[in-house]
Amino acid sequence: MKKSIPWIVFGIFALYVAESALRPLRSPEGFNLADFGRLPVLLNGRVQPLDSVGRNSLLQIRSTATLPLEEKKAWQFWKHPRKLGSTEWLLEVFSKPEQADQREIFLIHNPELLGELKLTATPGSGLSYYSFQELYPKLDEIVKQEQWIKELKPENRTASQRQLIKLHNAVLIYQRLKNSLQPNTFLQSKSGGKLSVDDDLSARLARFAADLPDGIAAAQAKQQGKAFDQRALNAVLELARPYELVSRVALPLMIPPDNPGKSRDGWENVGASLLGSLASGKVKTPVSYLARMSSAFAKGKPAEFNAALHQYREWLERRGLEPEITKGNREFFFNEFQPFIKALAIYLVTFILGCLFWFRRSRVLYRSASGLVILAFALHTGGLVFRMILEGRPPVTNLYSSAVFVGWGAVLLGLGVEWFYRNGLGTVAAAFIGLITQVIAHNLALGGDTMQMMQAVLDNNFWLATHVIVITLGYSAMFVAGFVGIAYVLLGLFTRRLSNDSGKTLSQVVYGTVCFAALFSFLGTMLGGIWADQSWGRFWGWDPKENGALLIVLWTAIYLHVRWGRLASEQVLIALAVAGNIVTSFSWFGVNMLSVGLHSYGFMDAAFKWLMLFDISQLVIIGASLLPVRFWLSFRSAAPLEPGRKRGSSPRSRPAAGTVSAATEPQI
User: Fold this and answer.
1) I need a surface site. Which of 117, 328, 591, 648 has the fewest CB within 10 A?
2) Which residues of the chain have a pLDDT value below 70?
3) Do residues 111 and 192 lie in contact, with contact meaning Cβ atoms separated by under 8 Å?
4) Angle between the 322-337 and 302-318 helix axes, to the nearest 10 degrees?
5) How confident is the model at residue 667, as a pLDDT?
């Protein structure tokens, strides 16, 4: 029975992955929200489905990809509260703005900012959400404060000021979405507030299309000085004028080009398309279909909504937009499947099982953890490859993708360690680093679209692709070496499992991964210089990012020279390996926070606190690693001291920690 438990555990998580991939999106009241979410639009310089527009907007506004519609108590673990998905929420913003205004989507958790805006915090919660209806009277103050704060240097802004800037950006995104399909609200309350328009967008545009020929004829007659029909001209202008706002602020470009066979760059928003119809004399077909869908959703008529949606998708196919439709379908599937989130959950379970294996030598725990880490790595790899296909670019293009790839490389190295040593260390290292990097990536995704077009400084070419991949693998190796060093310290201090053989094993793993890191960091830095020479006309410019990469190379060289020259004890070498985590995190994230140099494209104020906490934790581990061996639990049962040697003498004067026999077990 015990032999089948690992297979049962693996099967449960495999079903968890498969069920979420095959489960259809729930469409309330019969509306085909899945196909609507797959509709292609243009935003951030790339074609993406409407679901991605809604998902990324919600992440920036609310820091979640869904909107809970009912509260779930902590003890109601069985209950699945109704949630508003990103596609349904976006459609509500387009079609039912009055209802969308009442949704509590704006996150404010700074008490000082709540006091300034005279808002009441949610009792018993550190997070407070507010609706646009609640914030509407505060818009003038928010805009005024944001304009003043922007004049301050980023390093001089307080926490409440930084959150106000984020709140202003969230309000701006929300209002631009509301004005993407029809005019609804001005961007600033002092500009006039809400427009008085009827709810039936489809009927309004049908009337506009019917009046358009007479209105254009009247306008032409007026220009020629002839008699014209003022009523016909006014009827057209009355409906067209409000869309001037839509043409300026609409967020996604929802109207595809007229002739995609010649150029696919002609996407435009609904407002620009309708204003253009004053010259062409015809309302474009996509505008009519979108208006029909919006009106049908607002009136609660799923049959009409689904019919218009089906006809529009057929029209897109007939117009030769199959690549855009395929792109929308694939990215929609990727959004719903969420391979990295699932991999994160499985890495967490693997890490727990691996740690339990260290304290309870169970073959069942070992095999269960090994199977799950392979499943998580397969998900991780599949998600990485899928993103590459969607983007059509190498796996590392921004901080988010670098976090995903660093984790992937670390998991791969961890699996390699496990393949050679079979002691659970590689599995735990892979699971832990995979988990942490996925958490980092998830938080980076809160900034919005993670697949947007690359910065101009990162113009895609061969040398860029090879540089970022190679040097990122160097980051991965450094973190693996650092984690093994942390395991060495924790096992030695708090357990009796750091024996003579296991200490040597851990030391060899650290040495091997540092060698790998040294090679790839050096090659990656050289390749980066070649790319810089092609892009900027100089091989090296002492840019902060270049200096950070050089620091990793120098740090690995220091470790190798200390080891080869036998200049310090094993504990000092382990401390150097753990310190490599600090050097690598600075090179990876820290230099971006300096907000200077050609590479500061990933600047994030919020990450500074977490980077400092990480560095402090590593300093604590380093300090613990340098404690005299009398404090190490694994060494307290060592053989009697030689004559003349004092108990508790420094590690430098004792045999290397990896050579001290302290436990009876030959492995960790």
Assistant:
1) 648
2) 1, 21, 23-28, 70-81, 122-126, 185-199, 262, 453-461, 535, 593-607, 637-668
3) no
4) 130
5) 43
